Structures are given as structure tokens and as C-alpha cells.
């Protein structure tokens, strides 16, 4: 049985900074707290008693830096970025403070995104392509642990591709979800939004 770990990159803002809506259009590095989260993820995956079959990330720097920390801790070389793991495009809300985004789209639209992945007006998501990519990944052959480092906007489509009902699709920074995938390519959710330690 394969184990798929869907990992969100570490923090790109310190807790004292104003939170902004950052997507594919802004390629930020990890900040100090994000590097610490990446190190904790690395330690966690190094402690697993299963071989790591592959380690991929999205093309964005924050995901690549998180994946590099996991690679350094586990000794598993990076297998390269996968474009379909890239973050969504927040359109007119890219780089805007959360309060401004909420004022523009409204609470209902934000709840629809967090609970059902229905994008607010102006966001470019390409849901069908993302769902198809996750389903193709589930159907792959393999064994051991598969680690995919991505972002919150992209990760949620794994749950939707499985048809898993959750009250929230969000994955916090430095957290991961774990799926078991059987020989027929059928995924089962083991846990979601877990931080190591």
C-alpha cells in the first residue's frame, strides 16, 4: 500500500506581519518561522519507518525550500517540481491584505472557497485540471511514501478528487495530510492538517 503525504510549505510571513493573500503570482521565500516548520517536517519524515519513494514540490520557492529541508533531513534527493502542484491565482486579490480581500468578496464567498473550493469572482483556479491531476496521481503505481509539497490552494483539490466531506479543506502552513492508496488506486484519508511534534 502506498502512503501519500500532501505537505503545505512553511510560513512566508512572520506572525507580526500583516497577512496577505498570496498565490501563484508572488514567489516568496520562507521566513525564519517557515524554515523552522520545514525543519520539523524534515525531522518527522526522517523518523518514519517506511522508504520514501518520491519527493516533489510545486515550482514556487516556498515549496521548493520546504522540500529541500525534507530532502536534507531524510537523505531522499528531490525529484523536481510538478507544475500541477502550483498555487492558484488570486487575480485582483493577489498580495492584498486579508481584510481587503474579505471586504471585496464577502464572507460567504470565502466560506465557499474554504469549505467547497468554489473560487471567488476573479480567482483563476482551473479546478477540472487540478482534479484530473490528483486522480492521475492516485492511479500511479508505486510503493512506500510519496511526499508532495504544495500550497493550500492546490492541496484542497486532493480531498475533492477523493470526494471526502470535511468542514474545512484548509491545510495550515507546515502541516500535512496523509492518504493510503491501495493497489487499485483508491485513496483513503488517514488524517488532514497535522503538524509534526
Task: Annotate the secondary structure layout.
Blueprint: E1 2-8, H1 32-46, E2 52-57, H2 61-74, H3 98-105, H4 107-116, H5 127-138, E3 144-150, H6 152-162, E4 176-181, E5 187-194
Parallel strand pairs: 1-3, 2-3
Antiparallel strand pairs: 1-4, 4-5
3D architecture notes:
The protein is α/β, with parallel strands linked by helices. The protein has one domain: Rossmann fold (3-Layer(aba) Sandwich). Helices cover 36% and strands 17% of the residues. It contains 6 helices and 5 strands, in the order E-H-E-H-H-H-H-E-H-E-E. Strands 2-3-1-4-5 form a 5-stranded mixed sheet, sandwiched between helices. Strand 4 (176-181) and strand 5 (187-194) form a beta hairpin. Helix 5 (127-138) crosses helix 6. It is globular. The two termini are 25 Å apart. The model has no long low-confidence stretch (mean pLDDT 94).
Looking at this protein, list some descriptive labels:
197 residues, alpha/beta, Rossmann fold, 6 helices, 17% strand
| Helix fraction by DSSP (H/I, runs of at least 4) | 25-40%
**What distance lies between the first and last C-alpha atoms, to the nearest angstrom?**
25 Å
Biggest sheet layout:
5 strands, mixed
Provide the succession of SSEs: EHEHHHHEHEE
CATH homologous superfamily annotation: Phosphoglycerate mutase-like
Q: Count of DSSP helices? A: 6
- So, CATH architecture? 3-Layer(aba) Sandwich
> Could you name the ranges where pLDDT drops below 50 across 5 or more consecutive residues?
none
What is the fold named in CATH at topology level? Rossmann fold
Strand order in space, largest sheet: 2-3-1-4-5
Strand content: 15-25%
Shape designation:
globular
User: What's the structural domain tally?
Assistant: 1
What's the CATH class label? Alpha Beta
> Which class best fits the helix and strand makeup?
alpha/beta
Overall residue-averaged pLDDT value: 94
Integer-rounded radius of gyration: 16 Å
Amino acid at each position: 500500500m502506498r502512503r501519500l503525504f500532501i505537505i503545505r510549505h512553511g510560513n512566508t510571513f512572520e506572525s507580526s506581519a500583516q497577512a496577505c493573500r498570496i498565490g501563484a503570482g508572488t514567489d516568496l521565500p520562507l521566513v525564519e518561522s517557515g524554515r523552522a516548520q520545514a525543519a520539523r517536517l524534515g525531522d518527522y519524515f526522517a523518523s518514519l519507518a517506511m522508504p520514501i519513494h518520491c519527493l516533489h514540490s510545486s515550482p514556487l520557492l516556498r515549496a521548493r525550500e520546504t522540500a529541500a529541508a525534507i530532502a536534507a533531513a531524510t537523505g531522499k534527493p528531490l525529484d523536481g517540481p510538478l507544475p500541477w502542484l502550483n498555487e492558484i491565482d488570486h487575480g485582483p486579490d493577489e498580495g492584498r491584505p486579508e481584510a481587503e480581500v474579505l471586504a471585496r468578496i464577502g464572507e460567504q464567498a470565502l466560506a465557499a472557497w474554504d469549505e467547497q473550493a468554489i473560487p471567488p469572482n476573479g480567482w483563476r483556479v482551473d479546478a477540472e485540471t487540478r482534479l484530473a491531476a490528483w486522480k492521475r496521481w492516485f492511479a500511479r503505481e508505486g510503493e512506500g511514501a510519496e511526499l508532495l509539497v504544495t500550497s493550500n490552494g492546490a492541496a484542497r483539490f486532493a480531498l475533492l478528487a477523493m470526494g471526502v466531506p470535511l468542514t474545512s479543506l484548509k491545510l495550515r502552513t507546515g502541516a500535512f495530510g496523509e492518504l493510503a492508496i491501495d493497489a487499485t488506486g483508491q485513496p483513503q484519508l488517514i488524517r488532514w492538517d497535522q503538524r509534526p511534534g
